[in-house]
Structure formats: C-alpha cells, structure tokens
Amino acid sequence: MDDKLFNVIDDRRDEIVALTVDLIRFPTINPPGDAYRPCAEYIAARLQKRGFETTFIRGEGTPGDTDRYPRTNVIARYDGRTPGPTVHFNSHIDVVAAADGWTVDPFAGVIKDGKVYGRGACDMKGGMAASIVAAEAFMDVYPDFPGAIEISGTVDEESGGYGGVAYMAAKGLFSKPRVDHVIIPEPLNKDRICLGHRGVWWAEIATRGEVAHGSMPFLGDCAVRHMGAVLRAFEDELFPALAKKTTRMPVVPDGARSSTMNINSIHGGQTDDYSGLPSPNVPDCCRMTIDRRFLLEEKLDTVKSEVTTILEGLKRKRPKFDYEIRDLMEVEPLMTDRDMPVVTAVAAGIREVMGIEPEYVISPGTYDQKHIARIGHLHDCIAYGPGILDLAHRPDEWIGIDDMVESAKVMAVSLKALLNRQVP
Fold this sequence. Notes:
The protein is of the alpha/beta class. The chain is 33% helix and 24% strand. β4 and β5 (115-117) form a beta hairpin.
C-alpha cells in the first residue's frame, strides 16, 4: 500500500472537487462546440504551472469546425528525469446539451451530499479532474520518475471524435514511440475496467414515391407508407433475429449483450421547419436513420446485408417500392486483451485501493478508444474512471466525491507501475 501517495491525494480532495466544478462551468456543449477554446486554455494554464509543455491543436476541416466554433484540443507533456515509457490520460471536454428536467443549474457545479452535480460531472469532467490530480500527486511524491506523462483534453467525442482524438491520432499523437499506454477516464464505475466497445453502423435509408395532391393520393405513391413497410419488416424479421445473438464480450448492461438497432429518426414529406398550414401533398421521399450496434462475433458485411436483404425483399414484393441506403459511420468492435500492461496495472491498482477484484466490461457504445486503436494502432488502451455510466447524459448528472478520490488513487498507482515497468 503506497500510503504516502494516497495521503497526498486524500489531502487534495477539495482540489479535485474544485477542479471538477471549474471544468463543469465551461458550457462545452456539442453541438455546436461552445467554449472549447476557453476550456482548453484553462487546462493548459493549470498544467503549465506544473511544468507541462502544452500545445493547442485545432481539428481543421473536421465536421463542425468553423472560426466561430473551432475544434480546439489541448495536449500537455511532462518528461521525467530519465527515458522510459509514456502514459497518456485522455479526456474529452465536450458535453451533450443539458435539456429539461434539471433541479439544479447544469453549469454551476453544485456540491451537495457528497456529490458534484452538473452537465459533464460524470461524463467526464470528474474523471479528467481525478486524472490531473493523480498525475500531479505522483509527480510530487516521485519527482525522479522515468518516462513521460501526457494529459489531453479533446473535443467532439460525443459526435464521433473526428475533430479530437481521430484528428490527433492521424498526426501520430496516439502512437508509438510517442505514447505507450493510454487511460481514458470515462465513467464506467470505479471498480470496472472497460476493455473496449461494441461495433456500430449508422446508415440512412430513403424510400421513394411520387408527388400528388393529398386529396387524390391514388394518383401518387406515398414514400411514408413504403417506410412503414420497412418498419414492419424490421419488427417481424430483424429485431427478433438480433435479440437471439449473443457474445463473449462482457458488455454492460446485460441488455447490450445482444445485438441492437435503434431507429434514430424518421422524416417524410412536410419539413419540420414549415410555418402555417400543412401542404396537401403525397410525400415522395421518407428518410430513416438507423443505429446498429453489433458484437465481436459479427462481421460488418453481414450486419449490413441483414438490412439490405429485407429491403431487397420488399423491392421484389411491394409494388413501386424502391430505396436508397447511405453509410454514415462504421466502427468495428474492439476488445483489449486482459494481459496488456495498462489492464494489469489498473487491475492491481483497484485491488490495492479498494481491496476487491475488478470487473472487466465492454461499453455498449463507442468512445475515443476506437480512434486510438484504428488510426493510432495503439492497443494498450482502456477506459477507467469514476462515475456511474447510467447517469451520463441524464438530468441532474452527478459524480461522487469519494469515487473521484478513490479513482485518482488507482490512476496514480497505475501510473507508478507503468512508468517503472512493474507490469508484464
């Protein structure tokens, strides 16, 4: 038990809370990408005081990047006294919109009953605060450490990470020899190690029809009715088949251990932004966006063919039915091996701090580990951080102060083990 290191972190409990509150008070809402630059500057200023070299990286040309809403990331690095491995803590600074249902100001950082409330408290500004204090405490207790520590605050994770980690990974900032181990403090619960995520395929399906006067629909062809046939076929054929698929991946919660598909949106005919009375037209187009999550045991080509087979069947059977399908995003499933150094180090840290065996899990949705593995080709990467996953994106989102302190201890001893090569 590293009592000296743990005592330093205990003494900085209020500092973890204050840092979390400060981060929450930057309303880094995505979309559109508010307050990215000032939040990144705040992180840089803090780490510069501790001797970190900081760099701002704008994801130029990525989705959403404009002069009004620049995709501004920050990366900080502190080199130790001697050569060695580099451990990188990566946190996204963007949050989803607050929406309705809050009983506290979502961007005030309210402290109440041992918790910090606010949008992003759980996902994942509390985790970022814990990782920063963990790194600083380690540096104070072990100033002669080998290797290097990096901390990044990146953007757009909530919308795919293309202006953040994906952009930076393409520039080699998440690859060897620069970086060896990555910990992403996502809120997967303090006693869990997240090894990866399910796969995802987003697509848009469009059905076609023919415009006619709404009083004489028999002269046209209703694209919305065609989409209704698609929905019925999905209910009758696809959803029951997905529910039967199982996986060896330890996905949480249990419902995500089967394949799933969500209907994100349907739009047909009259646009949502019209004013006044509706137009009496038969709609000639209807669009559906699907969000298909799939398992390690499935192949992406098969996932796609399950949908297109149903659409082709309708094309053969249903008069005038026609469709178009467009890929929006595709990410393969990902699962880091349990014997990788970063997994071993964090697992040992959980045992040391909490006296329990860690639970190894897979996230139901993707996060920025996908870009580190796929673009950076760095596979010694996990998600580990404080916060209860089920609270993310919900009203009155909160993070427990005790959980942040304990997670900071786990991160600090994991950092010690990785930098000193005390893991296989």
